[in-house]
């Protein structure tokens, strides 16, 4: 699965939202279509998210750290973050499902081994 941004002409496809706790930032990912480095605690967490999406057939994903530039030293990014934070409840409310990613990526990878009626097969 390649990560990229797509302008959809105002049509919002069904999407999953990710709620994560990154923990202590150890790495930064460079992802295609994202104009800033994405801070993460470890790359295994990102791999677990992608694996879940592949397994469950999730095509669209919204994550604040991917969709809102949160670079601390950028005034433009901080202004964007201030504008978008009030909209986050809308993003969560309109998602097909919320994928909750705990700090421990192993717990995450095992927590979705069963069937969940809220998540399409």
UniProtKB/TrEMBL annotation:
Protein name per Swiss-Prot or TrEMBL: Heterokaryon incompatibility domain-containing protein
Matches recorded under InterPro entries: HET, HetReg/Transcr_Mod
Q: Which organism is it from?
A: Coniophora puteana (strain RWD-64-598) (Brown rot fungus)
Q: One of this protein's Pfam families, by short name?
A: HET
Q: Which residues are in the Heterokaryon incompatibility domain? A: 15-107
């Amino acid at each position: 699965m390649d990560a990229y941004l797509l302008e959809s002409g105002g049509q919002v496809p069904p999407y999953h939202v990710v709620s994560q706790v990154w923990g202590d930032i150890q790495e930064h990912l460079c992802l295609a279509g994202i104009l800033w480095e994405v801070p993460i605690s470890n790359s295994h967490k990102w791999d677990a998210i992608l694996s879940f999406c592949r397994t469950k057939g999730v095509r669209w994903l919204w994550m604040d750290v991917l969709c809102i530039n949160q670079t601390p030293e950028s005034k433009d990014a901080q202004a964007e973050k201030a504008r978008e934070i009030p909209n986050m409840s809308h993003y969560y409310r309109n998602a097909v499902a919320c994928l909750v990613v705990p700090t421990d990526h192993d717990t995450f990878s095992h927590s979705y081994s069963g069937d969940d009626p809220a998540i399409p097969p």
